[in-house]
């Protein structure tokens, strides 16, 4: 979805380095999410935020931190990257005002390689 | 939320109708059935959702029997560009937000 952008799209880094992945959205949604995808494992939730002052851990938050700088921006940090954090990372958004079940809109992904 | 089970992979040819079945035996009254599509190196994209009977949009149809323990995503006359992974999810009927539980999905390969 072009309304959800992620930077960088690809990143190669070394073990121990601090890395920040950024997500921006123009959809006006209040909810934002960070997932990682590994081959054969589907997507797993790292952190999510329901508004600017709300941060919640997902199922695999260890080794990661997040910051919700504004309603439209949600960044994910790896404080000290390790090789098993090599994965495809996706940001997603959803709208609490929408009717029916939660529908999430995903960014294009960031491919991170930790050497 | 109910766990879903779907085939790991399917093959098809251009112009054929493809049906992907998902089982969700423990689906609850407050659950909706939702399907996402993911192309290689892209994020998942919502394609269709339903509660019961049949739902149709410009992309696909979703068939849900009365007991709601399974559902079938139908893609009419597939083309090469329909090659993707299709995920079946069960989502709470109320917009509470939170995590979506993606399984392995069904990898559909459309051949010429």
What do you see in this structure?
The complex is a heterodimer of chains A (115) and B (112). With 115 residues, chain A is an all-beta fold. Chain A is built from no helices and eleven strands. In chain A, strands 2, 4, 5, 6, 9, 10 and 11 form a seven-stranded mixed beta sheet that branches. In chain A, strands 1-3-8-7 form a four-stranded antiparallel beta sheet, with no helix packed on it. In chain A, strand 7 and strand 8 form a beta hairpin. The radius of gyration of chain A is 13 Å and the shape is globular. The model of chain A has no long low-confidence stretch (mean pLDDT 93). Chain B has 112 residues and is an all-beta fold. Chain B is built from no helices and nine strands. In chain B, the strands form two sheets. A five-stranded mixed beta sheet of chain B has the order 1-9-8-3-4, with no helix packed on it. A four-stranded antiparallel beta sheet of chain B has the order 2-7-6-5, with no helix packed on it. The A-B interface holds A 1, 4, 31, 33, 40-45, 48, 50, 58-59, 88, 90, 92, 94, 96, 98-109, 111 and B 32, 34, 41-46, 49, 87, 91-105.
């Amino acid at each position: 979805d072009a309304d959800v952008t992620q930077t960088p799209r690809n990143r190669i880094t070394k073990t121990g380095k601090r890395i920040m992945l950024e997500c921006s959205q123009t959809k006006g949604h209040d909810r934002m999410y960070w997932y990682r995808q590994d081959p054969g494992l589907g997507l797993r939730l790292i952190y999510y935020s329901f508004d600017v002052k709300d941060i919640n851990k997902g199922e695999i938050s260890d080794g990661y931190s997040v910051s919700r700088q504004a309603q439209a921006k949600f960044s994910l940090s790896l404080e000290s990257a390790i090789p098993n954090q090599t994965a495809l990372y996706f940001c997603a958004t959803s709208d609490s005002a929408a009717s029916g079940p939660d529908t999430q809109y995903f960014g294009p992904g960031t491919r991170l390689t930790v050497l | 939320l109910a766990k879903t089970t779907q085939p790991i992979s399917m093959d098809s040819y251009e112009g054929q109708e493809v049906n992907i079945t998902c089982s969700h035996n423990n689906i609850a009254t407050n659950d909706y059935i939702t399907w996402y599509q993911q192309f290689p190196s892209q994020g998942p994209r919502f394609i269709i959702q339903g509660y019961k009977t049949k739902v149709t949009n410009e992309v696909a149809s979703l068939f849900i029997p009365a007991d709601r323990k399974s559902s079938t995503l139908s893609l009419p006359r597939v083309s090469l560009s329909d090659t993707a992974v299709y995920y079946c999810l069960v989502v709470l009927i109320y917009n509470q937000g939170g995590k979506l539980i993606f399984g392995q999905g069904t990898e559909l390969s459309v051949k010429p």
